[in-house]
Amino acid sequence: MKTILTGIRVNSEPTLGNFLGALIPMVRLSNKYSKDYNINIFVPDLHTIISDVDGDLQQNLLMEIKYYLAAGLKINENVHFYRQSYVPAHSEMMWLLSCVTSTGELFRMTQYKEKSNGGDESTNAGILNYPILMAADILLYDAEYVPVGEDQFQHLELTRNLAFRVNHKFGREIFVPPVKTIDQVKFMEMDDGIRIRDLQNPEKKMSKSSKSENSKIMLLDAPEVAAKKIMSATTDSVGKIQFDMLNQPGVSNLLQIEALVNDRPLQEVISTWAGETRYGDLKKQVASSVSSFLADFQENIAAIPDEMVYELLETGEEYANNIADAKLAELQKAFCIR
Ligand code: TYM
Q: Does the beta carbon of 45 sit less than 6 angstroms from any atom of ligand 1?
């Protein structure tokens, strides 16, 4: 059975960007494919500690699993939730993979450059090595499909390269490489990778770490607060409602958000607004969609008991440890350390 896998760090409450870029696509894929695919949803707690955690990591983790459930993910025996650190093979696999990764590959990663302020030497080594752990997360389970936002594509390409490199080194198919990013996007039924933009500065992605509260929508924002943030979003002076991320990123971002929160195809939303010119009308519509979406979602979260989450994690971790230990042993044998 093939595997679809994803993870979201738990440094803080997610933004609408994390949610629409990664969580919602995973929920949609899971509900569509979980009869025939393994659905692996894990919490990358070890990736989380590369930077500061807002609030309590354990609490954030519990909430994250609830977000998937509150967003409508249906559980069955093929859906597995687990914590990365509860499956020790991830860390061990990372070491083995680090021995076939060049430092140049790591220094070239855009996220490393950003998070290290262009290579500041006081940056912790976790930030540099993080893509190797991500490759381990994926390759341990032969996951072919990895729904992530566009900012993670470079890490996914590295993962593919490492899989091919290991297979070539040992002359056999130890790993199943994840499919190319272009095919990931097709599998997610998207035209392109998703990058929800900062509401105030739509050239940039919406990010948890942004200092301006108006630039990001957090999942637990009161619906009316979220609506206000949409109403104050930066647009442009072109005066046409159309999807053109390059020249009109603010307006395009609103169209994208409107499509995703209503689970409508982007093309359909674009055609609904074709020929319209009043940005205020678009903002009102998106503000209303986002606030009713958040209201429903927040009501669903409150109904999920903590015990249910812990039970899911324990069952998932048993499954994950079995699969991951077997794959780790295969690579250990290939390296002759077993
Ligand atoms: P993280 O925690 O930074 O982000 C989680 C997911 O959210 C997506 N994302 C966005 N998508 C659209 N628009 C945005 N503005 C936006 N901001 C964030 C990210 O692309 C990501 O999919 N390394 C990963 C976590 C991870 C992982 C993995 C993912 C660890 N191992 C294995 C998949 C498979 C990360 O830090 O994502």
A: no
- The mean pLDDT of 28-55, rounded to a whole number, is 96
C-alpha 27/C-alpha 23 separation (Å) is 6
Number of domains in the chain: 2
One domain, residues 218 and 146: no
The reply to whether 46 and 180 lie within a common domain is yes
- Are the beta carbons of 52 and 17 closer than 8 angstroms? no
User: Does residue 266 lie in a domain region?
Assistant: yes
Q: What CATH number does residue 35 fall under?
A: 3.40.50.620
Residue 259: give the domain boundaries.
Answer: 213-301
The per-residue pLDDT for 13 is 85
Which numbered atom of ligand 1 lies nearest the CA of 150?
Answer: 20
From 27, 82, 152, the mutation candidate for ligand 1 (largest count of ligand atoms within 8 A of CB) is 152
**pLDDT higher than 70, residue 191:** no
Q: In the prediction, which pLDDT does 42 show?
A: 98
Question: Model pTM greater than 0.85?
Answer: yes
Q: Which residues are catalytic?
A: 115, 205, 208
